[in-house]
């Protein structure tokens, strides 16, 4: 079984990274270079996290064999039998070198270049490369200056002899210091927000109010995105009219037109005044970049709007089902996946009712309590891991207890749960971060190339210091614990941090203690309140502005449903008339039984009413999604007090 665990981890982690990329990116439309760079960076970072527990258990196996080498041979064979996850000597050092240096090459050199390349509005490969080099000149120069400064600091001490290994250690230390600085900030947020989010999510009322809040914000963003897209399309239409087909820039204009939505392409040239001023090549490059950004943002808001509507409908149905005496979850607006085989045979309406109305709240609160205990253990260990006598770090205590029992499975599970929880706290914060519209990971295949590659850069910079911090928590890093013991293969690749003592003995030990203050600030919503003051609205339960946005979102949902019900009356009436015509025609041609002849039959009435209700629900849902996604002005009509005629009497 030697190396079996490593092979399983390599395959499983690849499919995990591929699934996440498919969830956030668009595998069919985005550039292959962007997808490859993002997938490789995510894969390498996840691989480090999943293989590190195997590295730790392998070291404990070696230590156990050395400690029992003087005993009786039979005892050694019995106790020191290699676990199934044992990795042969020489495999991990090579693997760590390949994984680590490839990820560092991606995050510091290739991905920043690919970001500028993918976002460039140039029309040729040479133009995009030129733009990327110019934009990254300052970026590369800054990091080169930092490296030279550290190099001068080391060279100023004559007792140190600089070797190639020392230069590598200086570079690794600089990268890990930058990553640890950001790591603690993200970790302090995730340690509090993740348990709290599960506790609050156990209440449907909280989730519904927050969904209303998001709906109000998204309505504003969607209107702004539609307005921005319309303005950009006007510029494109003007350029389309001014540049004739025999002009040298016509090919560039045609390239821009291919990036426009189909509905705008059909209207190009209609009611647009031709401009006598011809655009320049640089102007078309800028317009091309604006078109790509506007179209991407418009698509994101439409998809996010539809998702929020689905969430609001589902949560409202859950609130109704809780007070219903029937143990059957009823969907007001059935979706397309509601008739899948999973919904029919596995996740039935009855099972869904028990989960949503009975089990969900207890399960989420129990999970929140467990996560809260893990968070408390992490905070305590981050503030005390430098103490080796006595051992105060809880993670180090658990690992040492498992080591005394020679229990490799417990060692691997304790390591995996610990580092996995740390990664979830850090990575989930990265997925939640939104820096205006420049960096924003949007699910449902809506994330742009710039954000995908930026996330890959962040993961590659955060994962190595995260793993070193974890090894420090369990006292497996001699640079922090100052214990003379065999190091893991991962630590040996990092080199001796004692080359820069002020970092290994100062920054790496005392800076993680800041996580306690960050947790307190997150618990009292200090960051959210500051963003609220700056005009970036955040959901805070005791804030008046939050209450106003919740009410606004609730009204948007109700007005949209009312509009679509009124409009669907016309559609449903026409469908019913057409259905009656086809039904009558079918009977006259093929004949029917006595039950089919009887229009007053209760069975026929039930079937007919079921078909009509189902079709009406689908019509309301479809019209609602289409209307709210394309016609924002319709909502403004209600705000201005305009009336909508609804043929209620005709459809009774």
Short description:
The protein has 652 residues and is an all-alpha fold. Helix content is 75%, strand content 1%. The N and C termini lie far apart (71 Å).
Secondary structure: elements and pairs:
Layout (H helix, E strand, L loop, with lengths): L3 H21 L7 H36 L5 H7 L11 H29 L5 H31 L8 H38 L2 H39 L7 H9 L3 H5 L14 H42 L18 H5 L3 H36 L9 H11 L3 H25 L1 E2 L3 E2 L8 H25 L4 H4 L7 H6 L6 H10 L4 H9 L2 H8 L10 H47 L3 H4 L4 H29 L2 H7 L8 H4 L1
Antiparallel strand pairs: 1-2
Helix pairs in contact: 1-2, 2-4, 2-14, 2-15, 4-5, 4-15, 5-6, 6-12, 6-14, 6-15, 6-19, 7-10, 7-21, 8-10, 10-23, 13-14, 14-15, 21-23
The pLDDT mean sits at 80
**What's the main sheet like?**
2 strands, antiparallel
Strand content: under 5%
What percent of residues adopt helix (DSSP H or I)?
A: over 70%
Give the overall shape: globular
Low-confidence stretches: 72-79, 586-616, 626-652
End-to-end C-alpha gap: 71 Å
What oligomeric arrangement do these chains adopt? single chain
- Counted by DSSP, the helix tally is 25
Broad structural category:
mainly alpha
Rg for CA atoms: 31 Å
How many beta-strand runs? Answer: 2
Listing every helix as H and every strand as E from the N terminus to the C terminus, the arrangement reads HHHHHHHHHHHHHHEEHHHHHHHHHHH
As laid out across the biggest beta sheet, the strand order is: 1-2
Structural write-up:
With 652 residues, the chain is mostly helical. Helix content is 75%, strand content 1%. The protein is built from 25 helices and 2 strands. A two-stranded antiparallel sheet has the order 1-2. The longest helix is centred in the last third of the chain and has 47 residues.
């Amino acid at each position: 079984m030697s190396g079996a665990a490593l092979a399983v981890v390599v395959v499983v982690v690849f499919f995990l990274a591929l699934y996440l990329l498919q969830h956030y990116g668009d595998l069919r439309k985005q550039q292959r270079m962007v997808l490859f760079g993002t997938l490789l960076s995510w894969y390498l970072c996840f691989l480090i996290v999943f293989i590190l527990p195997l590295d730790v258990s392998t070291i404990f196996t070696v230590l156990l064999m050395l400690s029992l080498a003087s005993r009786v041979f039979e005892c050694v064979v019995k106790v020191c039998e290699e676990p199934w996850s044992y990795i042969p000597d020489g495999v991990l050092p090579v693997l760590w070198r390949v994984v680590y240096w490839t990820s560092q090459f991606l995050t510091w050199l290739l991905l920043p270049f690919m970001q500028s390349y993918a976002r460039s509005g140039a029309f040729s490969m040479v133009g995009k490369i030129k733009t990327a080099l110019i934009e990254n000149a300052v970026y590369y120069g800054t990091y080169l200056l930092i490296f030279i400064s550290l190099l001068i600091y080391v060279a100023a001490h004559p007792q140190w002899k600089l070797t190639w290994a020392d230069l590598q250690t200086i570079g690794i230390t600089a990268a890990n210091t930058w990553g640890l600085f950001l790591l603690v900030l993200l970790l302090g947020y995730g340690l509090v927000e993740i348990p709290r989010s599960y506790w609050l999510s156990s209440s449907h009322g909280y989730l519904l109010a927050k969904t209303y809040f998001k709906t109000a914000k998204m309505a504003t963003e969607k209107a702004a995105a539609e307005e921005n897209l319309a303005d950009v399309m006007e510029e494109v239409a003007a350029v389309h009219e001014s540049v004739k087909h025999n002009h040298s820039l016509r090919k560039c204009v045609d390239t821009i037109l291919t990036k426009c939505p189909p509905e705008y392409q059909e209207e190009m040239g209609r009611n647009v005044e031709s401009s006598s001023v011809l655009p320049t090549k640089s102007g078309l490059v800028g317009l091309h970049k604006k078109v790509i950004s506007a179209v991407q943002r418009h698509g994101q808001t439409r998809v996010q709007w539809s998702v929020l509507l689905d969430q609001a409908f589902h949560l409202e149905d859950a609130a109704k089902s809780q007070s219903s005496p029937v143990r059957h979850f009823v969907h007001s607006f059935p979706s397309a996946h509601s008739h899948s085989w999973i919904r029919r045979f596995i996740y039935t309406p009855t099972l869904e009712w028990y989960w949503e109305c009975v089990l969900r709240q207890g399960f989420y609160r129990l999970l929140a309590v467990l996560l809260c205990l893990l968070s408390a253990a992490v905070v305590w260990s981050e503030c005390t891991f430098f103490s080796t006598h006595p051992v105060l770090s809880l993670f180090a205590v658990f690992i040492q207890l498992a080591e005394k029992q020679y229990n490799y499975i417990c060692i691997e599970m304790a390591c995996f749960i610990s580092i996995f929880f740390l990664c979830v706290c850090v990575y989930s914060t990265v997925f939640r971060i939104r820096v205006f519209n420049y960096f924003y990971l949007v699910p449902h295949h809506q994330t742009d190339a710039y954000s995908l590659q930026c996330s890959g850069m962040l993961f590659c910079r955060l994962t190595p210091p995260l793993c070193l911090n974890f090894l420090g928590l369990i006292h497996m890093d001699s640079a922090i614990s100052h214990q003379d013991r065999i190091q893991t293969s991962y630590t040996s690749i990092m080199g001796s941090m004692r080359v820069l003592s002020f970092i290994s003995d100062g920054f790496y030990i005392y800076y993680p203690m800041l996580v306690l203050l960050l947790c307190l600030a997150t618990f009292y919503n200090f960051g959210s309140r500051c963003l609220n003051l700056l005009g970036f609205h955040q959901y805070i339960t005791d804030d008046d502005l939050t209450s106003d946005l919740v009410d606004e979102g609730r009204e948007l949902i109700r007005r949209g449903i009312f509009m679509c019900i009124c409009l669907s009356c016309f559609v449903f009436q026409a469908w019913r008339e057409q259905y009656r015509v086809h039904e009558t025609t079918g009977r006259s041609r093929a004949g029917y039984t006595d039950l089919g002849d009887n229009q007053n039959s209760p069975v026929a009435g039930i079937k007919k009413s079921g078909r009509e209700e189902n079709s009406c629900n689908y019509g309301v849902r479809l019209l609602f999604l289409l209307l709210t996604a394309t016609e924002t002005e319709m909502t403004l009509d209600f705000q201005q007090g305009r009336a909508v005629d609804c043929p209620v009497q005709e459809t009774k």
